Amino acid sequence: MRPKVHVKKGDEVLVIAGKDKGKRGKVQAVFPKEGRVIVEGVNIVKRHVRPNPKMMQGGIIEKPAPIHASNVMIWCSNCNAPRRINKRIENGKKVRVCNKCGTSFDD
Q: Could you please report the per-residue DSSP string of 40-75?
């Protein structure tokens, strides 16, 4: 059974748990099998990289690491707040909508 991921690539989310609680950013990647997401500017880790043909200069690079999808909440731009989502069928398609105001996240 696959864990459900309620966010998609490009969604704006708010981190609600962990060391980066309160930060907001766009989802860069989603890993539904693991139930994790990568959010820009959140959970930045340092990696020591050796010089290689791709990257001539080695050193310490910073990059975002995945966090669990349950630790983020989708940001409703209409309400200007983090919100839960509902799913509704519009024009024969299932779309995600804001639980409070009904604004669609799937445009």
A: TTSSEEEEEE---SS-SS-EEEEEE--EEGGGEEEE
CATH number at residue 46: 2.30.30.30
User: Are the C-beta atoms of 7 and 15 separated by less than 8 Å?
Assistant: no
CA distance 69 to 56: 35
pLDDT digits (tens, 9 = 90+) for 59-73: 999 999 999 999 999
Structural domains counted in the chain = 1
Distances (CA, A) of 83 to 4, 55, 64, 76, 92: 17, 41, 24, 6, 24
Please give the model's pTM, rounded to 2 decimal places: 0.84
Residues 6+ apart with CB under 8 A from 48: 58, 59, 60
